[in-house]
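Example record for the data management plan.
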Amino acid sequence: MKKLSLIVLICTICVGAFAQKKVLTHKDYDHWKSMRYNQISKDGNLITYEINPQRGDGNLFIVNSKSGKTEKINRARRAYISSHADYVAFTIKPHYDTIRKKKLAKVKKSKMPKDTLGVWIVKDSKLLKFGNLKKLKVPADASSWFAYTYTKKKEKKKKPVKDSLAADKKAVKDTVAKVEKKAKKAKKKKKSVKLKGDNLVIFNPILDKKFEYEHVTDFTISRNGSNVLFTQETGDTLKINNILSFDIQSEKLVTLSSGKHHNFKKLALSRKGDRLAFLQSTDSLKIHTYNLMFKESAKAKTRILVDTLTKDIYKDWTASKNGYVYFSENGERLFFGIAPKPEQKKKDTLTKDEKYHLDVWNWKDTYLQPRQKLKAKKELTRTYETVYNIKKKDFVQIETTEIKDSRTFDHGNSVYALTYNNEPYGRLIDSDDSYYDVYLKNTYTGKQELVLSKFGSSIELSPAQKYIAYFQPKDSSWYSYNVKTKKIVALTKAIPVKFFNEQMDMPMAVGSYGSISWTKNDKYVLINDKFDVWKIDPSGKKKAINLTNGFGRKNNIQFRRIQLDSKHDYITENELMLTAFNDKNKKAGYFSVNVKGGTPKQLLFTDAAFSYRAFEKAENADKILWTKGTFTQYPELHVSDLSFNNIKKLSNTNPQQKDYNWGTVELVNWTSGDGDELQGLMYKPENYDPNKKYPMLVYFYERSSNGLHSHHVPQPNWSIINRSYCVSNGYMIFVPDITYKNKVGFPGEAAYSAIVTGTLAMLDKYKSIDKDNLALQGQSWGGYQIAYLVTRTNLYKCAMAGAPVSNMTSAYGGIRWASGMSRQFQYEHTQSRLGGTLWNSTIEYIENSPVFYAPKIKTPLLIMHNDNDGAVPWYQGIELFMAMRRLNKPCWMLTYNGESHNLRRRANRKDLSIRTMQFFDYYLKGDNEPVWMNSGVPAYKKNTMTGYDLVK
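Corresponding structural encoding:
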């Protein structure tokens, strides 16, 4: 009996603990944090990461694995670990509340509190601070030096002190003034010039040694930290512009160029700091013409390398300030952009009302006017990449007026570049796909040859430049092109597995399974199928090897290689590390496999999600950083060795989560109306009681089940529901996958088949779902499908659709304003999946357009559609709203002024989160109706009235 009483007591305590947990509110968003910007030193001894709230002051954490200590630096951001791991440099932001108060007081930007430079000295565990930071640059290679600029404070004028002998002093002063007045008449007084710029500090915090220069306007430091190149203003009555080079080892400062009308841009140093380049103008015109200046060595003189008279480039062209200027990694080549000599602006002879404003749309134009207008600035500032080969002392124009785009390799060291010409196929982009002709160009000789015509898929130049590998959508196979012999070899055609994306269900060319890798000297290329990695001889002489021994396909595990060595473009390790993901049960982790091939070895594989963006290896040590998380656990930062032994969790991002009623998620399965075996996600509150009834939200966008273990930080969302917030507040959430393979021309029916059958299957599986309180929510393509579903079913009590297409017949001929492209390609070949033109598939366009079936809608609908939406025209939302309004059906539309497809401004995101949940709470929970739904918000009160208050 005593034992039974104890059990009852324990259960009572547990129930009480659940009852005491808080539910998430919209006020909780601000203090919820995120961990990011992790990095590890080359020797693996230092690790840094940031934890920042959504609003407020965050912290930088510096972990010293040798001492075992972790330092927390308040408000620190953007850390740089020195190459020797002897210091960490970072920016310390002003207090968030201080900045906010200044903004409320409308303080000028120039008067706002400035950032502070922080330097953590590892050996002494000492923090150095330097105020008014402007810019910081830390070299990537071996050096303890770095450079930064700061704004010098203006000295305040001292108030005069009262003096008892003032009368006597005044008499003396008057006498002196008379003498000075005569002197001034003899010599006209000159005004002193006002110099711009900041103070530059070249600093070694380990040696506590620094050099400082005033009025610096720009600077850069070489990658090895040996040289600093900077521009400076000097002068008293005449301003002089200078460019100087400071050699840190010799502590020698050299003036490279100087003059009254000199203007400098694009400072560049080679990796070793022994070579430098910059753009220089010496004219006094409003629009400057620049010369490219070059200094080949420390002893060489600075000389003009390129000007308008240079013979090896187009006549009257020169280096442009709009292009990049940089050295190849080996320092043997200098890259820069050229353009025609700029024209001076002519004097305006017409008044504003005398000018016409017109766009001419010509059916022969390669690109539509909206796209031309978006590209206008790029075209006006376009430069053409050119390279100067230092040893050969010659130039090669990589890009030309005929072939304007290029890609270089191996950090500029490679002999070859790929160049692209899409001009012949420009018109096709509006209704078909993006194509281009691909050329191989020798950047030493300038020789160029056509490799592929009308191509539009993945293409790579191998690291040793022996082959070009590309995926050909026409037959869904990978090919190699031998640069020397021009021979083309089919690499995957004879392999009895598919190398194209098997889940593709859009009426368009099918893509591959992603990036490829090469072994040293281009001996083998690694290519992915859906599950496994193949090791293939690019010459085609040897038989292909399944590197992962078919283990992936047998076990439904997708393997992909992780590049551990960031210094080389080819594989250097004997044991390859692979990411692993089971597409059935959603387990994930890491395996390893020998580069020769074999059965992969499991290193870490579990029910969790791993962020591969956060994955980082120490360059010179057997240490790696990675994150692991689930829906219930924030993806925290971990460190381990390459075998995932000695694992240590570093971060603790949101400890307050334990105080809140969170939720759980599980994988669900059902058969769609089309007979497809589908998966989805079911979210339930943490204190879920199977004997209670819960309202359910149904959210969807294409396929989402692979996100089973994704963590959803409580935050105001840009267009969709926040899953953590909803389950904490007593909702269940169903997220179904949708397939369209057999539904080209009928995307709405495909959505109905997956979503409605999935919802009914969940009602059978979970008796706790309140079948009378179901709702839909989705954005963009999901918003369209909601608009379609409410014309077909009354299963859902209400729905919220963000940026929905409501009329495919009017949307088809429209423009995607963000890109300036026609919307036709989208309906014929991509996500809309209609597979034909408006005039060839008219019935499909009408049947998939919700607006034509608006009279059938009985579901109250909330629409969000913004007036600057560059993806789905705002008028699509208006058409649906107007139809429902005309039919006297409950409908509201939220339009955020100046916002695009998804909300960017946090204030707007928070407002949408509040209104969306008020809408659902009213219909699904029986809460009181908010004022904005009941009586609206008049336009004249839009900035003073929220309408959040509930009508009693």
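Summary line stored alongside the record: The two ends are 51 Å apart (CA to CA).
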